[in-house]
Structure formats: C-alpha cells, structure tokens
Design goal:
Length: about 180
C-alpha cells in the first residue's frame, strides 16, 4: 500500500485467508481493512456504510462513486490505502473488473487447490465451532463450488495469488510482499 491511497479487493474461497491477509496488510502497510465478509455477525457492506454505492456498482454503474466513498474513509483514517476482504461467493463480471481497473482498484484472488482451501476451512471452522463438524466439507462445497470453479478459469489467472505451497500456507511476508508488488508500493 502506498501513500497514493491504493484500494485492494481480496476475493477467494472460504478458508483461503482473505481476512487474515487483510489484517496483515492493515498492520504492515498502514492500510484501512474493511472486513466485508463479517458472517454471521452482520453485513459488512452495511457496516462500512457502502450499501448505496455498492448496489449501484453491482447494477452496472461505474466503480467511481464506490471508490470515492472508500477514498474518503481512507483519508478519514489517515491510512495509506484500503483493503477490502469479501465473502467467498463474490465473483465479479468482466464489466465489473473493467470498471474497477479504470478506478485503479487492484483485485486479488487469494487461491489454492480445493484440497488446501477445504483443509484450511475445516481447521478454522472446527476452532470456531461455527458449522457442525459432520457437515463441514459439504458446507464448503455447496458455498464455494461455483466461485472456486470461476476463479480456476484462465481469465482469472492474472488476479490469483497462491496462498499455499506444497500443502502449507505461504508466509505472511511473502503474501504481503506479493500484494504490495501488485499495488506498486
């Protein structure tokens, strides 16, 4: 994150570490982390006061108004930029990606093999006891299948950042460095 108020959107399947990476970027890069994926406590879009601009953007409007609100929040927090971590089911259309690129938003898909993502999800959910253990794999599949398949397609390759290597999580330093490189910081 650089002082030019960079904005990064983190996408990816459940368990891949979007929220964790967002928190690391906030700490390491003086960025404002907006946790949009606040399940089950609340809706992060509403919690961050982005509903009107978000709905307009999703309906096909330019990302400019959404980005303007985010930039005001960055300024109010005296941060160097912002990172927003989103729920696992969110996959942008080509039009949305174009609009975000024009608004200079960096989109990063934190990614791994399905097995790595499921294993990380299982570990997290068992620790937090949010879903009955017997249903965890089915839960991941039913809530992540479509988005995981979409992010696996070749057109998403430029956005992907590997969260795992050889079955283990990539280090904090490497993930933060990779996002900083993409942001140009």
């Amino acid at each position: 994150m650089s002082r030019q108020t960079s904005i990064t959107f983190l996408l990816g399947p459940s368990g891949v570490g979007k929220s964790t990476l967002g928190a690391w970027l906030a700490e390491d890069c003086d960025a404002l982390h907006m946790e949009i994926d606040q399940y089950p406590s609340q809706d992060g879009i509403d919690a961050e006061g982005l509903r009107e601009e978000w709905e307009a953007f999703l309906a096909g409007a330019s990302a400019a108004d959404l980005v303007a609100v985010i930039r005001r929040k960055i300024s109010g927090a005296n941060a160097s930029g912002s990172v927003l971590s989103f729920p696992s089911g969110l996959v942008f259309s080509a039009g949305h990606l174009d609009s975000l690129a024009k608004a200079r938003v960096i989109v990063v898909v934190l990614y791994g093999t399905a097995a790595d993502c499921i294993n990380a999800f299982l570990k997290r959910e068992v620790e937090h006891r949010r879903v009955p253990a017997a249903n965890l794999v089915e839960h991941w599949i039913s809530n992540n299948r479509d988005s995981y398949v979409a992010f696996s397609r070749p057109e998403w390759a430029p956005f992907r950042v590997s969260a795992f290597r050889e079955g283990k999580r990539v280090s904090r330093a490497k993930l933060v460095a990779e996002v900083r490189r993409r942001v140009g910081a």
